[in-house]
Design a protein that fits this description.
Length: about 120
């Protein structure tokens, strides 16, 4: 059974860092595109970054380039979203998915990230 679980969210001050984890079960992250998305109430979900099966990492948002990076741990079947220099506008529920578009086939339950002083 395919399953994705995000963790690592929380409350952090502006300028702080968090590392989100996406743990996958039922399939291998090595052979899949794994996307990170975020959503705030009243706004459309937006794609943040993508760990492609080719091994490349792409960032969908100009606002996070240079601050957010991805890492893949094939042995643990996880993909990480490293977020640095966090800003209040990064506050959102962050989701990982099997796929890098809104047509992704499987989604996690999300983890809340709140950036506030």
């Amino acid at each position: 059974q395919v399953h994705l679980v995000e963790s690592g969210g929380g409350l952090v001050q502006p300028g702080g860092s968090l590392r989100l984890s996406c743990a996958a079960a039922g399939f291998s992250v090595r052979g899949s595109d794994i996307g990170w998305f975020r959503q705030t109430p009243g706004k459309q979900r937006e794609g943040v970054s993508c760990a492609r099966r080719s091994g490349d990492f792409t960032s969908n948002l100009d606002s996070v380039k240079g601050r957010f990076t991805l890492a893949r741990d094939n042995a643990r079947n996880r993909v990480y979203l490293e977020m640095n220099n966090l800003k209040p506008e990064d506050t959102a529920v962050y989701y990982c998915a099997r796929g890098c578009s809104d047509y992704a086939t499987d989604w996690g339950q999300g983890t809340q990230v709140t950036v506030s002083s």
